[in-house]
Amino acid sequence: xxxxxxxxxxxxxxxxxxxxxxxxxxxxxxxxxxxxxxxxxxxxxxxxxxxxxxxxxxxxxxxxxxxxxxxxxxxxxxxxxxxxxxxxxxxxxxxxxxxxxxxxxxxxxxxxxxxxxxxxxxxxxxxxxxxxxxxxxxxxxxxxxxxxxxxxxxxxxxxxxxxxxxxxxxxxxxxxxxxxxxxxxxxxxxxxxxxxxxxxxxxxxxxxxxxxxxxxxxxxxxxxxxxxxxxxxxxxxxxxxxxxxxxxxxxxxxxxxxxxxxxxxxxxxxxxxxxxxxxxxxxxxxxxxxxxxxxxxxxxxxxxxx
Length: 306
Hints:
Elements: H1 4-22, H2 31-41, H3 48-59, H4 64-85, E1 95-96, E2 99-100, H5 102-106, H6 108-128, H7 135-152, H8 157-168, H9 182-207, H10 212-239, H11 242-245, H12 251-255, H13 260-264, H14 266-285, H15 293-303
Antiparallel strand pairs: 1-2
């Protein structure tokens, strides 16, 4: 059996190759926006969301090939969100995945268009993979489109970004939204980060042909893993370096954003992430999935930076 590191690398190589094939090209797509999209997608990164999608498909008895289109679509959506999140009107960051952010090298307008292109291309990719000749695959893909769209939209990631932005952006009269309490912070991150992570795991389980018990257990587990991921990200923003993170460290504190370390301290935050991992293990165990790669990935999420 391969190690987790070997598994993650094998998945990343497959995902990167599939993404390269999926990205629009000239002459159908103008070179200027095709290049901008490719710049951000090929910058690397952990590929956590597509890896979770592939691992979930395998956990329920499917194959990585079953879930690859959904995995690629999720990475396109995630990359779009990073491009827009880094814009001057949002987080105003100049580094992402170890290189200058897209708006720095291509301008704000082209960065917005590249993000828009990646978001819509994700759903075009999924639609192309739902042939009417295979009604089972078509039904699974249609269900995944709904799951992913909900996670990416206003009640999911976009809604979470809006809550995050409201914390640091004054209204026309110069007033900021009230600081988030513990429940508000959890809700914001469940939408901003957790929704797409949860959708990634659920999409893989659906495309892999999982039973409703499998899908429900994976959704519950992925909800806790998504929260744990964000908690550790908040911790690393405090403890990590820009070189290790691939993005500017300390940005959240400098902007006065609500974070888990700011509210609970670093030690308690790490403990909360570990508690989330244990809840995820218990959920997977209800469907006999606790020995899958999913739990190994969860441990990697929680142990980052240790």
